[in-house]
Every structure is written in structure tokens, then in C-alpha cells.
Amino acid sequence: MDESDVLKDLRSLILTKAGIRNITPADCKTISIEISKTLNKNVSETTIKRLFGFAMVRHNFSRFTLTTLSEYVNDQSLLTTINHSDNQDEGYDLHWKDVEQRTRRISDFTIKSIKNRSGIPYDMTVSRKFSEHDFDDFYKSDYSFMAFISQPGYGKTIILAHLAEKILASKALAAQGTTLVFITAYNLINKSNTQASFESQLKSMLGINTSGSLVSYINKTYKSTEGKLLIFLDGFAEVILKREARNQMFDGIIDFLCSIEDSNSVKLVMNMRSTTWSHFYEKIRNSTYLKKKWFQGNYFNLNDCSNVPSLNEKEVDLIMKRIDQLGPKIINPRLKSQLKFPFHIQLYYQLKEEDPSFNYSSNITFYELISRFIQDKIYKSNYYTEKILFLKKVIQLTDFGKKHHSVSKDDLIAELSGFKNAYSDLLSDGILMEERFVDSYHPKEYVRFIHSH
């Protein structure tokens, strides 16, 4: 891929990320500001104007500019092309050692991106013991794929990042020849050739040029060892609202999983929100083979559609110690219980940054976090007026929670047609959830708040 192709892809991906169809010179300043907020790196408004043809290009774009823009759109393959443009083409059939080097660069880039985007400094986060146990069980099993599933805000991406770091540092796995590639769904979906299959795009990223099956290629590579190719796939939240792209991605993943068959050399680990998993599971629920190859995890809860538990006491204590060296007894018990939900830790950290002297032992902080949660998820989001009106309807139907906590979806049908986008966001962002119960042999759907407060 030459620089003109790189620039073409960057322009397309930046517009997609920014939600801009027809860019104007005024949008370049907004994009520059967003890059600075996201990465703490500066790409000037003028440089953005040059990229989109609003200013004269007197010289080639610097490697820093191209690298920063690639990081902004979170595209590992573009970064690989930029940093190794003098290497052989991606279509060249590399030796496995070269493939391993590529996977390492891609995985390191993904982990670095996650660290830069973490809601609190990454070194204050913790590795989740449950995820390590689940992954160990999965790795040693005959299952082909697993997914960390939960409502938004449970730290699934951070979980994968810690797991990836542990795998990359494992001497035992390295001795087996096990290889990890950590990629995002966003990178695989936003390409000029959107019709390419999941497997084809994966082979292209790894530099494997074979017309045959990737699984067969991996089986041959690991024939004499117990090594495996581990594929970590994150970032579904960025494509979930694009229905056509989502379905295309799911179909590609399913085709790839079916090609694995009885091979134990390829394993896929994904991150999905509960609503995303429901869509994915709908596509595989009639396949006995795929359900047999799915490792549910040791904490799977069918009612909540989740297998990621909240933080335990020790994990909360460790994070709090890293944030501000407070002992566990100083923090208000109600607040501490609230911090078992990882997104609230991000809000707590923001509050502490603004006012380091606030009172940790009172209930005020508890209510402050609730207020910030509502501000972030409702008032600062798209369709906030529609969301408020819809939520008021739900609250009225529950008589402010006095009658019951859930509402029959039948009672909301009239509102759903007018608030379709707002309702989808409320489900996707983890404000509301749908439940299904069987009543007189007929399934009936209900809607309720995920968090009772």
C-alpha cells in the first residue's frame, strides 16, 4: 500500500469516526481538538486541512502525523504499513517468525491504544482473577471461542488488555510457540473492500498469502507443538449501530468459527456488550455445533446475559489504594459497594481530580456519582430529549418503582416507534435492559432499569 492509499483510508476512517458525511474547513478544527483530547497529541488544524484538500500540500506528511492519525482511528494495519513501508508487501507469504513479529506489533499497538483511552490511568487498573481462570480453562479445553459479556462499563476491554499482557509475557506459552494477535472489530469492518471475509482480512493483516484455509495453515504450523493462534477481538461497540456492517461482521466470524471444526490450534476470544451478544447469539442459537464450541465462562448468568462479575472487595481496595492510598475502612460502605461497578470508578477518579479534598466517608459522594452517571449517559448523549421523555414514561408505569421494577414492552409500543434511536441507545449504553419470561406458554418481554438507583 503506497502513501496515497494510506491517506485515502485515513480520510475515510476519520470521517466515519467523526460522523461527518460532507466535510467542511470548519470541521478540521473540531477533528484536531478531538485528536488532542483522545491521544494527548497534537495534529494541527492546518495539517487536517491539508489532508482533506482545503490547504496546499507542500511536502509529504510526517511519520508522526500519519502514526497519530492511525492511532486516532485505531487502525493497526495502517500503522504497520506506515512503520514498515520498506518491508515486503502484505500479500507475500511470510515465514512464521515474520508472522509472529507482525502479530506482536499489532497486539502491542492495540494494548497501547487501550492504555491511552482508559478512563483512569491504566497502571491503576487491576487484572481480574476470574478472567484469568476463565481463560486458562478455555485455553486447555476443546472449545473454539469465548466472549466476555456484560453491560457497558464493566471494564471488558481492560480485562482483555491485562490478559494479553500476561500471555505476551508468558515464557511457557512462548516455548509452545503460542501466538497472540489482538485486533478490533472496527479495523476489520471499516475498509474500502467491505466484502472481504473475516478470514481474508485476518490473513492480510498477518501477511499470510495462501489461497487455502487459514486454519489449515495454522494446523500445519503447530503440527509438532502444542502452540495455538489466539485471536483477541475487541471494539464491537463501535460498529454495533451499523446494522449491515454488524451482520456482515457476525457472518464472517461465524464462517471462520465453522472452519475451525475440531482443530485446537485456533482460539477466538471476544468482548461484547450484552445487547451485542444477544444479536450474535441469535445467529448461532440454531447451530448445535457452534453452541457446543462456545465456552460460556464460569460466571455466565442467563437472566442478565453476562459472565463478567462486578469487582470484589479486594479488587476495589487495590484500585482505591492505587488511586489515593486510602484505607478500605475510610470509604463510606455504600460508596464502596457502588465502586464495584467499574464505570463508577472512572467517575470517582474524575471527581477526585476536580476536588481532592472531598469527603469520602459521607453519602454525598454516592449521590454525586449517580448524578454524574446520569449526566454522562443521558444529558451529554445523542437524543437526550427523547431519552428523558421515554424514561419518564417507564418511571410513571412503575409508579416510581413502588409497584414493580419492570414494564411490559406492550405498554411501551406507542413510544417505541417515536423513540427508536433513543431506546436503542438506552439498551446499548446499559441504562435499560429487556427481559423475556414465559407466561401461559407464551413469551412476554419486559423492560427495566439495570441499576435500581
Describe the overall structure:
The protein has 453 residues and is α/β, with parallel strands linked by helices. The protein is built from 22 helices and 8 strands. The strands form 2 sheets. Strands 2-3-4-1-5 form a 5-stranded parallel β-sheet. A 3-stranded antiparallel β-sheet has the order 6-8-7, covered by helices on one side. α2 (25-39) packs across α3 (45-51) and α4 packs antiparallel against α5 (76-83).
The oligomeric state is: single chain
- Structural class given helices, strands, pairing? alpha/beta
Shape field: globular
Show unreliable segments. 86-93
CATH class of the largest domain: Alpha Beta
- The number of distinct structural domains comes to 4
Helix fraction bin: 40-55%
Distance between the termini: 52 Å
SSE order, as H and E? HHHHHHHEHHEHHHEHEHHEHHHHHEHHEE
User: What integer value in Å does the Rg equal?
Assistant: 23 Å
| Major β-sheet strand ordering | 2-3-4-1-5
- The name of the CATH topology of the largest domain is Rossmann fold
Number of helices: 22
Number of strands: 8
Largest sheet: 5 strands, parallel
| Overall average residue pLDDT | 84
Percent strand equals 5-15%
